[in-house]
Amino acid sequence: MARHSLYETKSRPGVGIRAIGRYLPERVVTNAELARTLPTNDDWIRERIGIEERRFSAPDEWSSDLGAKALADACHQMNINVRDVDLVICSTYTPDHMLPNTAAAIMHKAGMPPTPGFDVNSGGCPGAVFALDVGAKYVSSGDYPRVAVVLTDVGSKLFDPEDRTVGVIFGDAAACYILEPTLPGKGLGDVLLRSDPDHYSSVYAAREQRTDRNGLPKKSAFGDNFTTMRGNDIKEFVLGVIPDFIREFVLKAGLELDDINFFALHQANRNLVHGIVDALGQPRDKTLTNIERIGNTSGASVPLVLREAVDSGRLHAGQLALLTAFGGGLNYGAALVRWCGPEDFVIQET
User: Fold this and answer.
1) What is the pLDDT of residues 96-142, one digit of tens each?
2) pLDDT, position 348
3) Which among 13, 146, 282, 313 has the fewest CB atoms less than 10 Å away?
C-alpha cells in the first residue's frame, strides 16, 4: 500500500522556492553556424535533437559570472539584497578553478559579505534536483532561512572543436533557486535520488590529450579537458529507466500521475522530453520545452523550465509540479513541489 505523501504527514514548516533567477549569455549560436565547422546541418539537428539555437558564453565569461547574474536576478525578483541571503550552494561541472569553490567566486562577484558557500557536483544536469534537495535540508535545519542554490555551467568551453555529439547539444546558462521556509504542507515534498554507476562513462569530462585530423594538439577553454558523451547510451537509459522511475516515485508519494499539474523535465533532447511524457500517458501540454531556443543547459535546465512555466501562467500557486533531472553518474532524481504563493512563506515580504 502506498505511503502517505509528505504533504499529508508533515506538521513542521516546509521549504518552498520563493524565486528563480536566470541568466543567458548574449551570444546566440544557430545550427547554421555550427554546420560551418562540424559535420552536421540544420535539418539533422532539428529532427534528432530539437534545437534551433543555443547560447554560448563569451571568452571571458565563466560559470561564476553567469551564476552571479542569476543570483542577482533572483534577488531582484524578491526585492531583496544579495546580502540578505544566508547560504549559497553552487552546482556546476565547469568550475572556474579546481580551488577554491565556484560559490565563493559567485559571492565575490555579487558583492556579498562573508557568507557561507560551497559547491555540489552531482554530475552536472542532475544538480537541478540534487542541489535543490541539499539546499532544502539547510533551510529545514532552521540555521539558514534563506538559501540560494545556483546552477551554472559553461559547457561550450569543454567542447572538443571536432566533436559533433556535444557541440550541437549544449548551451551555457545559469539559474538560481531562492529557498525559504513555508507553512506546513507547502513547497517541496518527496524527493528521490538515485545513481547507476554502471553507466559512469556514458557522459563525463576528463583530461585527455587529443589531436585533430592534422595531428595537431586540440584544446578546449579548459586546456586538455573535454566532455565526452555517448548519445545512444543516454537515450536508452532515459527512455528505458526514467518513465518507470517517475511512476514508482509518484506511487510512493501516494499520488497518481494525473495529480501532477506540470512536469519540469531536464531538457536533454526535445524528443526525449516528449518520449517521457508520452510513455507516462500524459498530455504534452503538461510540460514545456525550451531546448529549441537555448539548448541543453545542464543543471540550469529544470529551473529555467519552471521559471518559464510560472511566467507564462502554466504553473500556479497550489498546483503540483514534478521535477526530474538526469545526467552524469548516471545520477537521476525527482522532486515534488507544491507551488507556493507569497502567502505560503513564513518570511513575509515587507
Assistant:
1) 999 999 999 999 999 999 999 999 999 999 999 999 999 999 999 99
2) 74
3) 313
Virtual CA dihedral for 152, 156, 160, 164, nearest 10 degrees?
110
Q: What is the pTM of this model?
A: 0.95
In angstroms, the Cα distances linking 88 to 2, 59, 65, 113, 135 are 36, 25, 15, 12, 9
Inter-residue contact 187 to 338 (CB < 8 Å): yes
CA distance 22 to 249: 28
Residue owning grid cell 550552494: 89
Phi and psi at residue 195, to the nearest 5° = -135, 145
Other Cβ atoms within 10 Å of 341 Cβ, number: 11
3-state SS track over the chain: CCCCCHHHHCCCCEEEEEEEEEECCCEEEEHHHHHCCCCCCHHHHHHHCCCCEEEECCCCCCHHHHHHHHHHHHHHHHCCCHHHCCEEEEECCCCCCCCCCHHHHHHHHHCCCCCCEEEECCCCCCHHHHHHHHHHHHHHCCCCCCEEEEEEECHHHHCCCCCHHHHCCECCEEEEEEEEEECCCCEEEEEEEEECHHHHHHEEEEECCEECCCCCEECECCECEEEEECHHHHHHHHHHHHHHHHHHHHHHCCCCHHHCCEEEECCCCHHHHHHHHHHCCCCHHHCCCCHHHHCECHHHHHHHHHHHHHHCCCCCCCCEEEEEEEEHHHEEEEEEEECCCHHHECCCCC
Please report how many Cα atoms fall inside a 13 Å half-sphere around the Cα of residue 217, on the Cβ side. Answer: 7
Q: Which residues are catalytic?
A: 125, 266, 296
